[in-house]
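Inputs:
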Amino acid sequence: MSKLVEHLEEVTVRFAGDSGDGMQLIGTQFSDTSGFAGNEVNTFPDYPSEIRAPEGTLYGVSAFQVHFGTKNIRTSGDFVDLLVAMNAASLKVNLAHVREQGIIIVNKDGFDARNLKLASYSSNPLEDGSLANYHVFPIDMAVELKKAFIEVEIPSKLVQKTRNIFALGITYWLFNRPLEPTVSWINKKFKGKEDVILANVHSLQAGWNYAEKNPDFRKQYIIDKSNLLPGKYRSITGNQAVALGLVVAATKAHLPLFLGSYPITPATDILHALSGYKQYGVKHLQAEDEIAAIASAIGAAFGGSLAATTTSGPGLSLKTEAMGLAIMTELPLIIIDVQRAGPSTGLPTKTEQSDLMQAMYGRHGEAPMPVLAAASSADCFSMTLEAARIALKYMTPVILLTDGYIGQASEPWRIPDTDKLPDIAPTFATDPSNFKPYLRNPETLGRMWAIPGMQGMEHRIGGLEKEDGTGAVSTDPLNHQKMVELRQKKVDDIAKDIPDLEVIGDAEGDLLLLTWGSTYGAAKIAVEHLHAQGHNVSFAHLRYLNPFPKNLAEVLHKFDRVVIPELNLGQLKNLIQAKYLKRVIGINKVQGKPFKSVELEEKISVLLTMKNLKKWHAHASELDIPNDL
Amino acid sequence: MKTIIDEILDKPHGGESHYTAKDFKPEVDVRWCAGCGAISVLSPAQRLMPELGIPKEKIVFISGIGCSGRFPYYMDTYGFHGIHGRALPIASGLKIARPDLSVWVVTGDGDNMSIGGNHFIHACRRNVDMNVLMFNNEVYSLTKGQYSPTSHRGQITKSSPLGVLDDPFNPVALALGASATFVARGHDKDRQQLQELLLKAHQHQGFSFVEIYTNCRIFNDGAFDLYTNADTRDNHTIFLEHGKPLVFGKTKNKGIILDGYTPRVVNLDQGEHSIDDLLIHNEKDSTLAFILANMTYNEDLPRPMGVLQNLERSSYDDRVVKQIQDEVEAKGIGNLESLLLGSSYWEI
């Protein structure tokens, strides 16, 4: 029987199962294969904070979402077109994500009485008609695998462990994907364990064959190749990109790399990656706490390393006093905050953008620090290099904000030619006869760096206020005023050394959508959709938050309305309003989840239909758009 | 993988390197109170430095907060005055990044036992090669006279006007319990002895902890008189020497024997015990070190001074270097291009 073929521009697939079912693994394989096949891809893992929750429970469900297509794939997808659910609990938890008429592939043997009870189903959803609005493919994977392995001598226990791979094989058939990338991955991953390799490869092929031969599977979906720049690509998460960015930055600066870190979700993957880079000379200390982590990095910076510390919100709070020390001693340091939902322990595995104020102002005293924010997973690489450049050029600690979403989400990354990346040159003191620890480069106001081992430049620095130039401890009132202003000016003047804010769409007009951090992707898509519908919306994205780009004031005042969507209650909004006296309309979401582009599209559409600005003002006591609009 | 640091390391020290103590005195006024015990540590430290044979640009003093925190300003070496309690992690980061340096930490009983207590126990077990001088004056002085984690029960201070209710840490026992390899105690009234202890701390590869009794004339004057004054110290302290019997007393007429695990004082001039009966100090024996450390607050026993323990164990910073070397040997120096390509990439 011949199968039908349909071409699609984009698709979102979600793999869901028990924590131990290997959903993250097949999600990653599916994503890599989609990239390999020439598509744009964006993924997001969604897993519980419990490590191995009891099998079959609702809170033990782990999912991995892959959004792929021909163009404009910038989020992990608003609605799921295909859900793979390995048991009843995973169907229950994830059904709300699936669009009407979407496809659901379920593993039938995960819907026995026990599983249904654990998932709090009073009747079997596969039989009670509750899934009538979806195309459901119930497959008894245990039975199908048994059949497929009749002629292969593999212990059945091992065979049954490959159900996830079998499901992956079915999805590969649905999207007509090549099996080779996953086969070669299996061979590499299980090298030396021949029966495991055979079980997995055979299971993958069996999944494909099952769909190919099954008359219920009538249609294959083809997603055309994307028009990407030629080059080598790999899939990368924000956390991986930060780790690579640090190694490349150190190489470009000809400095050794030191990481002081303490495990914290969702930043720990950076520590994992860097701790494995011993071949590259990376030194790391898994410190006893967050404070020791940053303090050790400050010590390494004093000794001439490119030093970094990685953390998430609660850890950033603990590091604040030490950040002040790095500001006072004017040492280069990179602090990476992979933001998560707070306050306190909050929602440790869920994303948020609520550390902006802390990054900007969360220190005692006047303690200005450059703050950067990455826009996407791949952008984490570029912004880490940028953080290093600013830290070393201006002799200052720098905060780079990413978040749980882009930290863990992956997208294809065009691998740069590192030879073509510019060198990052710190300015070292060279002349002992004329040496003073706080002599500055008049251009950057960065002090000259002298590190232990440099003869004739022995000096003492620390947290006490310094006299400019000599670095001698000083309590002189006028010197303190001078130094506070100098440290502020040093950071403010970095505005001259960063790109202007770019506006997409008209340079002036009614409405500007302004974003920062990981909201970039959803906002960009929303704007493209609105443009396609003929709406006039301009869009700009901030990667530099302190200092802001020098043309920001000019850009803001060219628009009647400025809208800022943020995963917080309006932190950038407040900064902009305070600094530029420009009223801002906030779109604020704090649900531990990123924006869907459709959410932004809808809310901006409402704003666009409110032509009468005065009327809007009169009706809204607060300018922000309510969440339940 | 060659870095700017390697260039600095490769550069030989030029000119004179036969220093005198004067070379380590910067042109600043020492601002500690007259008679402060810290001053009595400064001069042995300055006198010791020329003897180490290390170019002074390779020496770093790091401190936290408290009266002790000023120490780096008074040493003409590289120096870093950190924040309260964090001298040890700052020093650890520096030494791990720069194993070529001689790293010294100067801290106090508040800085190191209280706010920095967590760092202290982890620094002890980690065994980063550095020398920690803890000035113990049993009081918070820079904040003007509150009780510290080494103040004794009943001590009257500004924050304990009716007497301290907690029991103190015994710093040397804490260090031993946290697996420190080198543990010693000295005091501010015997500079020669102190200089020798600092030299031994320096010679020890790994984490060296020296508790130093320093008198605070303003807020806790005389706290250690019994153990440090010339007329009483011989009868109330015992100076430990590796391989030698535990003898003390003005006329060397007393000694320590071990009764089970309990140390006991015996008289050597009454015919009942001779020097041959006495406990012999062995700084390589960590069980003994615990017994000796726990003599500290026992009023029937002399207070142990000198080196309690001196074990050989590879330092953390050496292990870091070795791990990198082993990996490079096994896999070669990392290639940036292959790092970026990762385990799976595709070409378009």
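The mean pLDDT of chain B is 96. Flag for discussion at group meeting.
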